[in-house]
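Hi all, long-time lurker, first post. I run a small reading group and we've been trying to get comfortable going from sequence to structure in the token notation. Rather than ask abstract questions, I figured I'd post a concrete chain and ask someone more experienced to write out its structure so we can walk through it together at our next meeting. Sequence below, copied exactly:
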Amino acid sequence: MITFDDFQKIDLRVGRIISAEKVEGSDKLLKLRVDLGPEIGQRQLVAGMAQFYQPEEMVGKQIVVVVNLEPKVFKGLESQGMLLAVGDNEPVLLSPNKEVPLGAKVR
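-- Answer (accepted) --
Happy to help. Here is the structure in token form:
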């Protein structure tokens, strides 16, 4: 359990995937470039989604991103946030049900 104050520290924003490619030497990882709007800009994310999504089908999708997560390095690539998905066997990307401005806060 976390406190409500801890939960409020999580900064969730809507971004758009502008590029995606498989990470060399990995069956699981994709390198994504995500536009999070003018306040935050673009970020690189490394996500374990290659078994479930082809890179070309991810480009253009709006997704929800944790933007204030400490960066982590995977296969020599820095991930500057984390996308949110639901499900273990076939994860589905979390996204708004209609187009929203990039960088919009999830509340």
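A couple of things your group might point at:
The chain has one domain: 11-93.
The chain has a mean pLDDT of 97.
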